[in-house]
Design a protein that fits this description.
The structure is a homodimer of 402-residue chains. Chain A starts with 15 loop residues before the first helix and ends with a helix. In chain A, strand 5 and strand 6 form a beta hairpin. The first copy, chain A, has 14 helices and 15 strands. By secondary structure, chain A is α/β, with parallel strands linked by helices. In chain A, helix 2 packs across helix 10 and helix 11 packs parallel to helix 13. Chain A has a 7-stranded mixed beta sheet, with helices on both faces. In chain A, strands 11-12-15-14 form a 4-stranded antiparallel beta sheet. Chain A has 2 domains: 142 residues, Alpha-Beta Complex (Aspartate Aminotransferase, domain 1), CATH 3.90.1150; 235 residues, Type I PLP-dependent aspartate aminotransferase-like (Major domain) (Aspartate Aminotransferase, domain 2), CATH 3.40.640.10.
């Protein structure tokens, strides 16, 4: 006797990335697959001191139920940080979330009806597709050029869109950044239309040479929903993020959040507030930027050294990812088992396409977790695999079964 | 220009309890409204020691991403605890959640289609109604008698139900416990039907004279979804709970959870595991039981002392709540402003009814948070209010506006 599951539950399918991550536990495996922050970036001592302080001085608040919106001083800290970036944010327009993924889910709950059009970059963040899909949207890809996604909203589906989802800074998976000029065009195209701009910014603080352009939210007040996270600058295991949105949207997101899981851990909020108020980021952010920059440089150097000339990539100016394009006809999914035999794992690009036909010849490499030495070793192996299989884009099935 | 929100977002409305809780911040207010655990029950020193230990010995795991299912040893701890209660539970049938409320939301996602019948007790837990409602079920009330809800599934709506939602132990809001005999009848009635039993057990550990009967899940393997929480025995602010379900349901719940917010805080899971492995509950549970028992006794004594004879209640054998019935024709919602004038807040019973017409003359009192002295003072005030308004069940509107 089987229980009857909801039709929605058919949307809940295994993430190819989370499945791949299970392989990374194998001894000797070098993972270029996950977007896991480097463990050496975690501010362990600062969090330890904050833990002790919070439990010594405010244990009752830290262990009791709290407001669904999040604690007031943390909301104020987020609002002040957004104001410093040019966004006219008030604390009561901020909802504290259990990571950005929860922000995406709540946005999906509150904005998407079955059949609503959601415009996305091509390729786009897999986690957003997973968060939105159960609410039944029609995804429509945006065209793009070297400056990023194009704000051409002339197709009927585009005109009726419920929202545009963008990662303007060091986008996952391509590493691309939307130029300031393109942001201005987007703001102009959207202004006055009943289309929400959902601006997802997990990587904006991880810039290398200089900060990315001002958030789009600064130019679209009352129409923008901005998502941020403490996962990349502090720790992803703490699960802390935030959403900034117009008051009437925040009110609905907060009520949806109450139904979903009441609130984010009171202890976690106070811990993080404590390290933020202690000024940790002043030292932490330059340290992380330097770390990821050196790992990006190691990966770029290794790619130059080991990749056959037919493989192409762009240089990301921040974030965690480099997007590789193999020659036309190559199949990054079919080549993955060969990479795994060499103890290297990456994510095939097909996972990141919402609509249309996904090209088979792309893949995402993360330089966030592996050391420069591991990166060089892994890229050398991948260079071998891609070189040896240039003329056999369609794999031998016996290899995949190995 | 307003953004277009989803039709679903109309289901997200303010919880009357959360709105009432805002009043409890007023100076001098005694709250009998919330189900907030007593702050003196929080094991602050044990959590402080666990924090230090975890960050000293396993910081990398505690601050990094982890599995969506939860960390393996915590899942095993939960499974062992359930086995000790007679449920044939394996660790891989356990999903760690960010509190029981998240378990309810995930169950709603995976089981409820628009129009699915969900059978509930009358009255039932408000948080479950809020979690399920956005998925569009038709709620149907169960009839009951002195032993609890009746397993009469003869109406067409009942036969086609997707699930039965029960709180068998010290139910919120009535404090009632389903007898062992009634549990056996439920198991027999459900066995072999494609109806999930959702057994929500936040209060089972908070018994006073002896443990409640064996969980229904023990008699309905493969068909039961059992929800538990660490909120009442350790701390609600940590947001930690769990779901036990058949493997195919756990798989879907886990994928839904991945889309919703990836995972529960890695740090929180390790903290709680550390205090559990240290044997904290052996001392903590008897302490909490004694605390709530003394507060229940204080409330029962105060009710005997101060309530007019026409007010009725039952004696709960555990949990946090006493359910009051005023005379027919009285209106607990209309009387609330009079109670607030006397600096006492409670929850009118109408909030807890899913379907049908809610009686206006019931209310929920919590003895979990206030001290025995505060309880006596508050009940004395309520006794005054209910006595003075016995003959005026329909309030004077000018009073409500005050």
């Amino acid at each position: 006797m089987a229980l009857t599951l909801s039709q929605r539950s058919a949307h809940y399918t295994a993430s190819p990335i989370r499945e791949l991550l299970k392989l990374t536990d194998q001894p000797g495996m070098i993972s270029l697959a996950g977007g896991l922050p480097a463990p050496e970036s975690f501010p362990v001592q600062a969090l330890r001191a904050a833990c002790i302080d919070v439990l010594d001085t405010q244990a009752q608040g830290a262990l009791q139920y709290g407001p669904s919106e999040g604690i007031a001083p943390l909301r104020e800290w987020v609002a002040a940080q957004l104001r410093a970036q040019g966004v006219a944010a008030q604390a009561d327009e901020v909802l504290i979330t259990s990571g950005s993924q929860q922000g995406l889910d709540l946005v999906g709950r509150v904005l998407i009806d079955p059949g609503s059009t959601v415009l996305v970059e091509r390729p786009t963040y897999l986690g957003a597709l997973q968060a939105f899909a159960p609410y039944g949207p029609c995804f429509a890809d945006l065209d793009d050029d070297a400056q990023g996604a194009l704000p051409t909203l002339n197709a009927p589906a585009h005109r009726d869109a419920r929202m545009v989802y963008l990662q303007p800074n060091f986008r996952n998976p391509t590493g691309q950044t939307l130029t300031a000029a393109r942001r201005a065009q987007w703001a102009q195209a959207l202004r006055g239309r009943p289309i929400a701009l959902v601006e997802d910014n997990p990587y904006g603080d991880l810039w290398f040479d200089g900060p990315p352009p001002v958030p789009l939210a600064a130019q679209l007040p009352g129409q923008s929903i901005l998502l941020g996270t403490f996962s990349k600058m502090l720790s992803p295991g703490l699960r802390l993020g935030y959403v900034h949105a117009p008051p009437e949207v925040i009110a609905k997101l907060t009520l949806a959040r109450q139904a979903a899981d009441l609130q984010t851990s009171s202890l976690t909020q106070r811990l993080v507030l404590k390290v933020l108020e202690g000024g940790l980021l002043d030292a932490q952010l330059p340290r992380i930027r330097a770390l990821y920059r050196s790992q990006r440089d190691a990966m770029l150097a290794a790619l130059e050294r080991h990749m056959p000339s037919c493989v192409r990539w762009e240089t990301p100016q921040g974030g965690m990812f480099i997007w590789l394009s193999l020659p036309e006809g190559a199949d990054a999914t079919a080549l993955l088992p060969l990479a795994l035999q060499r103890k290297v794992v990456y994510v095939p690009g097909t996972a990141f396409y919402a609509a249309g036909t996904a090209p088979r010849n792309t893949l995402r490499l993360s330089y966030a977790t592996a050391t420069p030495e591991q990166i060089d070793t892994a890229i050398a192996h991948l260079g071998d695999v891609f070189s040896q299989n240039q003329t056999h884009p369609h794999h031998d099935p016996s290899v995949l079964a190995a």
